Amino acid sequence: MKLGPLVLASLVALSATLAAKASERAMPGVTNPAQAHQDYILKCQGCHRPDGSGDDRSNPPMRGIVARFLTVPGGRAFIGRVPGVATVDLDDERLADLVNWTLHSFDAEHLPSDFRPYSAAEIAALRRNPIRLDRVATRARLVEGFSSEEAKQAQD
Fold it and tell me: Which residues are CB-neighbours of 62 under 8 A, at least 6 positions away?
């Protein structure tokens, strides 16, 4: 059976649409996974590396850790206020997609069961007050809370 060019083009378009819809279901809060990934490549991976591993000095790793910030008080706000997020030249909607994509892509295993994706409005509010000089100390304090939160959960 030979398919005509119009039928073949329609099947390709349908396949792309279905793949995009499947990605949306797999990543709540990410309306355009392909765009979010491209934004990561252009805006983040130069410092945080393609795999999110960072360098643990000036560009902290995200792989296996970034969603853990959502489990400690102040961690959710921290993600939206770090300089690289708060000052990036993306609109709030694309930035919310990028942050949500990053959480799903680099640390899905630590996403809380009640994870609420970042919205454009939340990102807009957080980035109005970026963390500047105390970024390193704030991050260290939050990371210290990871172990106490895990201990607390183990006792429950």
Answer: 48, 52, 53, 54, 102, 106, 107
**Pair of tokens at residue 120:** 């454009």
CA angle 95, 28, 70 (to 5 degrees): 70
| Structure confidence by residue, pLDDT tens digits, 72-125 | 999 999 999 999 999 999 999 999 999 999 999 999 999 999 999 999 999 999
Q: Cα–Cα–Cα angle for 60, 65, 70, nearest 5°?
A: 110
Residue 97: closest CA among 128, 113, 120, 125: 120
How far is Cα of residue 7 from the mean position of the Cα atoms in its chain?
A: 37
Binned at pLDDT 50, 70 and 90, residue 55 comes out as confident
Tokens 């000095």 found at = 57
Query: Using only C-alpha atoms, what is the Rg of the chain?
Result: 18
Calpha distance 29→144 (Å, rounded): 28
